Amino acid sequence: QVEGSESPFGQMLRGLQLRLGNRLSDKRWYCFRSYEELGVEDVGAWFKRIGIGEDSASDIQIIDCSMLSFEVLPFVCAIIARMLLEVREYVPANKRFNDPWVLVLEEAHNYVRPRREGEGRGIGVSRETFERIAKEGRKFGLSLVVASQRPSDISQTVLSQCANFLIHRLQNPDDIEHFRKIVPSQSRRLMDQITVLRAGEGIIVGSAVHIPSRVQVVRPDPEPSSQSSSPFTFWREDAPAFDIGGALSNWVDEE
């Protein structure tokens, strides 16, 4: 080693310190290190925070990750899912099926994607976690409901473990062809209706029904604020303007 130069190990350690420093100063990763401020002292308190415990107030818990950045989202989903699976694995064998849980993965194509070259580390960790749940979770009382607008962008390992499919309107040929291969040959003509299904209509396929069927799903009341925008309605001269002030205020609060 030349005097004044740094060893390879020292260079690696300095690079690690730099990466850790960047993570600690990046507010997007704040959710991984805010436990003390939130009063989460141990793993039991962590589970209670997400609504799991003997005194849980509700049977349904919603974890809203919609405002997380795309770099952070897969890691958060993977950590939550892995914790839920592992805690059920440690339950005594004769009690594993007590109070079974079902994870509903909304917009699953954002964190349960198929393996791709050059993908981020978070996507790989998240996919592996949910693939493990899909393959092993049922024997521990943990099941999945996978919801996505792009089923062709979901891990094939996860889809292969799905016993039932509720297919709403699709337009992408790759997505439609995927489901054509799943349904029995005598029912494939039903797939021709996928592109013309109305809001709330779907085709259900799987072990829950004797034959694939077209069904009408009960609409929620009140309906969520997620309908498609209507330019022909809101481009009128008397239509309300976009609330840029409110958006910027919420944006700053999130930061």
Fold and architecture overview:
A 3-stranded antiparallel beta sheet has the order 3-4-5, with no helix packed on it. Strand 1 (101-105), helix 5 and strand 2 form a beta-alpha-beta unit. Helix 4 packs parallel to helix 5 (121-136). The chain is globular. With 255 residues, the protein is of the alpha+beta class. The chain has 9 helices and 5 strands; from the N terminus they run ααααβαβαβαββαα.
Q: Averaged pLDDT, please?
A: 85
Order of helices and strands: HHHHEHEHEHEEHH
Whole-Å distance between the termini? Answer: 46 Å
Q: Could you estimate the helical fraction of the residues in percent?
A: 25-40%
Shape: globular
Radius of gyration over all CA atoms, rounded: 23 Å
Strand order of the largest sheet: 3-4-5
User: Count the strands?
Assistant: 5
Low-confidence stretches: none
The percent range for strand residues is 5-15%
DSSP helix count?
9
Q: Notable features of this structure?
A:
alpha+beta; 255 residues; globular; 9 helices; 3-stranded antiparallel β-sheet
Briefly characterize the structure.
By secondary structure, this protein is α+β, with helices and mostly antiparallel strands.
